[in-house]
């Protein structure tokens, strides 16, 4: 089998595994969205993202594609691509238009992709190598999320089960379930992420 075909099949299988693990923690993915294909990033910066080839809408069967970073895609880098896929898989719970996620959503995505217990040995090795000297906005969002763990997973599941999408969760909804977390952390989590 061609290397590229094997790579794509592997990523699709991995997407199923991540979906199962995420749904068991946070409840079902929004059923109005269906995963289309996993392909190479079309962004100028070559970074991974979710993409809506038929526009973003809530009418049902809205296709969402996962785009893997150019570097990982062009080298068929399984470990790096899987690590990126883990992050994007979190955005499939309640898909968002690009660039509009809250720190809660991006923090959960960064937490899931960097938490060793969810990954194979190969990806675990990659996570260790990727620890950075200067934290970026994703690292900061992940740190906020970790302050709310382990309770946060069941809290998000509970709030989602009442029909609230992750990006719409407010500080007022979170706070009663996280009495030991300071107000500033909770408010920060529920604001739109500052990507600078
Ligand atoms: Zn993200």
Q: Short description, anyone?
A:
The protein has one domain (3-189). The protein is built from nine helices and three strands; from the N terminus they run αβββαααααααα.
Low-pLDDT residue intervals, each spanning 5 or more residues: none
How are helices and strands ordered from N to C?
A: HEEEHHHHHHHH
Name the structural class: mainly alpha
Helical content band: 40-55%
The count of strands amounts to 3
**Biggest β-sheet: strands ordered side by side in the sheet:** 1-3-2
Overall 3D form: globular
Number of helices: 9
Radius of gyration: 16 Å
Counted up, domains total 1
Bound molecules: zinc ion
Strand content: 5-15%
Distance between the termini: 42 Å
Mean pLDDT: 94
Main β sheet profile: 3 strands, mixed
Mind explaining what this structure looks like?
The protein has 196 residues and is mainly α. The protein has one domain (3-189). Helices cover 49% and strands 9% of the residues. The protein contains 9 helices and 3 strands; from the N terminus they run H-E-E-E-H-H-H-H-H-H-H-H. Strands 1-3-2 form a 3-stranded mixed beta sheet. Helix 3 runs antiparallel to helix 4 and helix 4 packs across helix 6 (137-147). It starts with a helix and ends in a 7-residue tail after the last helix. The relative contact order is 0.13. Zinc ion binds next to helix 4.
């Amino acid at each position: 089998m061609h290397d590229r075909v094997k790579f794509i099949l592997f990523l699709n299988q991995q997407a199923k595994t991540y979906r199962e693990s995420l749904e068991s923690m946070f409840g079902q993915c929004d059923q109005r969205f269906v995963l289309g294909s996993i392909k190479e990033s079309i962004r100028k910066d070559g970074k991974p993202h979710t993409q809506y080839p038929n526009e973003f809408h809530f009418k049902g069967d809205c296709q969402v594609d996962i785009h893997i970073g150019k570097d990982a895609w062009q080298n068929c880098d399984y470990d790096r691509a899987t690590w990126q896929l883990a992050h994007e898989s979190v955005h499939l719970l309640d898909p968002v238009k690009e660039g509009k996620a809250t720190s809660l959503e991006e923090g959960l995505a960064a937490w899931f992709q960097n938490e060793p217990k969810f990954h194979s040995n190969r990806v675990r090795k990659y996570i260790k190598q990727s620890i950075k000297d200067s934290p970026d906005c994703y690292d900061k969002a992940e740190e906020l999320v970790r302050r709310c763990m382990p309770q946060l997973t069941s809290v998000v599941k509970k709030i989602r089960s009442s029909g609230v999408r992750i990006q719409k969760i407010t500080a007022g909804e979170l706070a009663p379930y996280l009495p030991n977390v300071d107000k500033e952390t909770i408010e920060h989590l529920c604001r739109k992420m500052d990507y600078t």
